[in-house]
């Protein structure tokens, strides 16, 4: 069965019979049992991405060879396909595979890589297939989500935003709260900002309003308000107007029963202008 590890069979040669002919007879027997050959053009592309934080050419080239060999053997033994090539650029190493069933291959690779040196991939994907789910193999976040969050790999996070990760909302919220690193918190906010209808994700975005990074605050409040024109109102020549941004945030907090005094305190909003704003929006 495709996806399960295959078995070997020893075929002995006979006098005056070519080994090739004996093997061909074995193939004919399988065809009679219903097995069919899948043409190369019917294969599906599958990519495995790795984030390269610090390129050491020799180490990277060694891993390139190792992951290509390992993946080829895995896909071959499970009847899923082959690893065709591995490319490297400044930020990523991309493993290119051809498989007969993307969903099964993704699951097999995810499970098999888990306890190997190749488990630090950022995503498994097909550019023409919208992945609807990423299985959490362990308790907590799966490595293909956690690694780009930890490394602030926004290219990988952008790719993950098209996947259905709402089922990981609890784990993402827990990781957000446990982290003291705003780079990690900002990465989580970026990843989930399109899912503000989810109550837990909404909570993440509301807590992201306290970020020291104005880009995160702007994106979070725009998605919370479901008002993409807010970007144009708050930005002037691609520069964020901090005062306008804080006004938008304070308005949201007042209308949603969030204590705006805490926001003003934690974000150091204490100019005379914002004292007046606070008096307007105060309970």
Descriptive account of the structure:
The termini are far apart. It is built from 13 helices and six strands. The protein has a four-stranded antiparallel beta sheet, with helices on both faces. The protein has a two-stranded antiparallel ribbon with strand order 5-6. It has a domain at 1-6 and 39-129: Poly(A) polymerase predicted RNA binding domain (Alpha-Beta Plaits, 2-Layer Sandwich), CATH 3.30.70. The model is unreliable at 130-139 (pLDDT under 50). The chain is elongated. It is of the alpha+beta class and 283 residues long.
Can you name the CATH architecture of the domain at 1-6 and 39-129?
Answer: 2-Layer Sandwich
Average pLDDT figure: 80
Compute the number of helices: 13
User: What's the SSE pattern?
Assistant: HEHEEHEHHHHHHHEEHHH
Strand content: 5-15%
Annotation, overall tally of beta strands = 6
Q: What percentage of residues falls in helices of 4 or more residues? A: 40-55%
Radius of gyration: 26 Å
CATH topology of the domain at 1-6 and 39-129: Alpha-Beta Plaits
Any low-confidence stretches, pLDDT <50, length ≥5? 130-139
User: What is the CA–CA distance across the termini?
Assistant: 65 Å
CATH homologous superfamily heading of the domain at 1-6 and 39-129: Poly(A) polymerase predicted RNA binding domain
Spatial shape: elongated
Strand order of the largest sheet: 2-3-1-4
């Amino acid at each position: 069965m495709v996806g399960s590890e295959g078995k070997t069979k020893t075929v002995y040669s006979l006098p005056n019979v070519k080994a090739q002919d004996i093997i061909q007879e074995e193939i004919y027997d399988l065809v009679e049992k219903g097995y069919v050959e899948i043409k190369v053009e019917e294969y599906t592309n599958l990519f495995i991405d790795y984030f390269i934080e610090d390129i050491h050419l020799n180490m990277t080239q060694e891993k390139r060879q190792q992951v290509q060999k390992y993946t080829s053997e895995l896909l071959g033994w499970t009847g899923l396909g082959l690893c065709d090539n591995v490319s490297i650029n400044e930020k990523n190493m991309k493993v290119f595979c051809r498989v007969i069933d993307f969903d099964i291959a993704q699951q097999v690779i995810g499970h098999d890589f888990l306890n190997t040196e190749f488990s630090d991939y950022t995503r498994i994907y097909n550019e023409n297939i919208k992945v609807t789910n990423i299985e959490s193999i362990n308790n907590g976040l799966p490595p293909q989500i956690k690694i780009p969050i930890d490394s602030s790999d926004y290219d990988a996070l952008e790719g993950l935003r098209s996947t259905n990760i709402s089922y990981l909302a609890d784990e993402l919220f827990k990781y957000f709260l446990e982290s003291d690193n705003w780079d990690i918190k900002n990465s989580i906010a970026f990843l989930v900002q399109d899912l503000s209808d989810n109550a837990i994700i909404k909570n993440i975005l509301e807590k992201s309003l306290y970020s020291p990074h104005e880009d995160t605050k702007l994106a979070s409040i725009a998605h919370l308000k479901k008002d993409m024109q807010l970007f144009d109102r708050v930005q002037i020549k691609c520069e964020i107007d901090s005062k306008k941004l804080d006004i938008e945030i304070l308005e949201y907090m007042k209308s949603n029963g969030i204590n705006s005094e805490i926001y003003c305190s934690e974000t150091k909003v204490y100019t005379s202008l914002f004292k007046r704003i606070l008096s307007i929006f105060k309970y």
